[in-house]
Structure formats: structure tokens, C-alpha cells
Design goal:
Blueprint: E1 2-14, E2 17-27, E3 31-35, H1 42-49, E4 57-62, E5 65-66, H2 71-77, E6 78-81, H3 93-103, H4 110-118, H5 132-144, E7 150-154, H6 162-177, E8 181-185, H7 189-195, E9 198-203, E10 206-212, H8 213-219, E11 221-227, H9 231-240, E12 244-246, E13 249-255, H10 258-265
Parallel strand pairs: 3-8, 3-9, 6-7, 7-8
Antiparallel strand pairs: 1-2, 1-4, 4-5, 9-10, 11-13, 12-13
Helix pairs in contact: 3-5, 4-5
Length: 273
């Protein structure tokens, strides 16, 4: 069953900026990764999913609800972390989280408490005085504390240190085990490889590839031919590295990392800011 459906979604800002004929779907209980550099169209796509932007053409739905016309309904059961978090700066973290609790009519604060403990967050201070990492933690707690069935996460670990990034990965994996559907954009390849079932790569506002993490890596391999001193050495080398021996040479095939695959699509790292 598809929870998130995007069909021929287009929003043209002019000068080749925007998203063009984007189509993808995310299944129930799936973690779906969305990769691309700054300016590629990730945030524009996510803002359409949240109903913040009306598409020029095409449509997107979550749980069958139209993301633009029924955005109020969607926002009731979706947890959202924006790419750039903006809070009410005059509030403390506590005041903001309490405000969101009332807005979402959360009766039980136990999940909020456990999230605060997980991310070692004391939200008493003024938000405007918080570091980027602290603000990101407040955003994570706010997005998860109402136990949403769908999560839309735009660069969710931005500003977090490696320990907190690891805890976030653990949280995502736990949510998946509970049947949650998660759509996540990220620049952190290790994060995506550890969590995502499938991935789409977006380039210049258009999808360049969509597949499972495993299949993407299976399709992108490197082959090396290694010449050894003699056949006995080659035999040992082939056994140790799962290679194919031919006399005193061994052919070894390795799968590329997700980062290497990504850079192939971008020709070595073109960044369309």
C-alpha cells in the first residue's frame, strides 16, 4: 500500500529552477531517502508534500488526501522537520513544545519526555539563544512527540554532533519497526545507507534514479584486475577477496558506496546552488 504518492509534480520558478515531472511513491512502513545537493529540488518537493506550495501541475497525496487542498487534515497525522527551522524566538523551548502540545491536543507527555532524555535536551532557555544543534533537537522532539504515522524530514540531523546523529538513526529504525512511513532528505550518506529501504536521486529538478539501496549498489560496481607473483599467491588472494583467478591474475569486483554512486550522477560533484 502506497502512503505517499507523487504524480508528475511540477513547479517551475523559471531559469531552469524548480521541480519537473516528479513521480514517486512511498510504501507503508518504508523509509524512503531523497538525495540531491542544495538547489536540486528536495525542499521544494517536501514543501509540496506539506501543502505549503500549490503545484503548477501534477499532484501529491498522503494517505489519499490531496497535499494542497487537504493540507490541514494531513498536518494532523504527519510529523515534519523543515530544512530551515524557524521558531518563535521570544519563546523558550519549553513554551514552544507546550504550545505544540496544545495545538495537537496531546494528552500524554510521556513521549515528549523520553525524546528529551534521548537527545539530552534541556529546553528551558530562550530559543533565540540556542545553538543550531539545540534548535534541531527541539524540532525533532516537536516532530515526533505526537506519535505521527507519517514523518517528512528535511535534513533532520543538520547541526547534530555524531553521537546525536547516531541516536537519531536509532530513533528512525525504531519508528520503522512500529510501522511508520518515513520520507527523509539527507546529505549524510551513512545515515541514508543505514536507514533507507529505497532512494531517489534528484538532479536539476528531475529524478535521476529511484531504486532500493541494495539494487543501486548492485548496479554500480568497480572491477579491478590484480597481477600477483605466481598462481599460488593469486589463488590465496582470490580466496581472501572473493575474486576470480586466471593464472597469476585475479579479477575483483567491489560495490560502490552510496556516496560514489551519487557523485557519478553529478559528474564528480556539480553543485547547483
Amino acid at each position: 500500500m502506497n502512503i505517499i504518492e507523487i504524480e508528475s509534480l511540477t513547479h517551475d520558478y523559471g531559469n531552469n529552477k524548480g521541480i519537473f515531472d516528479i513521480s514517486m511513491s512511498v510504501k507503508e512502513s518504508e523509509i524512503f531517502g531523497f538525495l540531491g545537493p542544495n538547489g536540486a529540488g528536495k525542499t521544494t518537493t517536501i514543501r509540496h508534500l506539506m501543502g505549503f506550495i500549490k503545484p503548477n501541475s501534477g499532484k501529491c497525496r498522503i494517505n489519499g488526501f490531496d497535499c494542497f487542498h487537504e493540507r490541514c487534515k494531513i498536518q494532523e497525522f504527519v510529523g515534519y522537520i523543515p530544512g530551515e527551522i524557524n521558531f518563535f524566538d521570544d519563546m523558550t523551548g519549553v513554551e514552544y513544545l507546550n504550545f505544540m502540545e496544545k495545538y495537537r491536543k496531546i494528552k500524554n507527555g510521556s513521549l515528549k519526555k523520553s525524546l528529551l532524555e534521548m537527545f539530552e535536551l534541556d529546553p528551558k532557555g530562550k530559543i533565540k539563544k540556542m545553538s543550531k544543534g539545540m534548535k534541531q533537537k527541539v524540532g525533532i522532539v516537536s516532530a515526533f512527540m505526537h506519535d505521527p504515522q507519517v514523518l517528512i524530514l528535511d535534513e533532520p540531523t543538520s547541526g547534530l554532533d555524531p553521537i546525536m546523529q547516531k541516536r537519531f538513526i536509532e530513533l528512525i529504525q525504531k519508528e520503522k519497526s512500529k510501522g511508520k512511513t518515513i520520507f527523509i532528505s539527507s546529505h549524510i550518506f551513512e545515515e541514508v545507507e543505514k536507514t533507507c529501504d529505497r532512494i531517489s536521486i534528484i538532479k536539476d529538478g528531475k529524478l535521476a534514479a529511484t531504486d532500493s539501496t541494495e539494487e543501486l549498489r548492485n548496479r554500480h560496481v568497480k572491477k579491478y584486475t590484480v597481477t600477483l607473483e605466481n598462481e599460488k599467491t593469486a589463488e590465496d588472494f582470490a580466496r581472501d577477496f572473493s575474486g576470480i583467478q586466471k593464472g597469476n591474475t585475479v579479477e575483483v569486483t567491489t560495490r560502490q558506496s552510496l556516496e560514489e554512486i551519487f557523485l557519478q550522477y553529478y559528474g564528480g560533484g556539480k553543485n547547483d546552488k
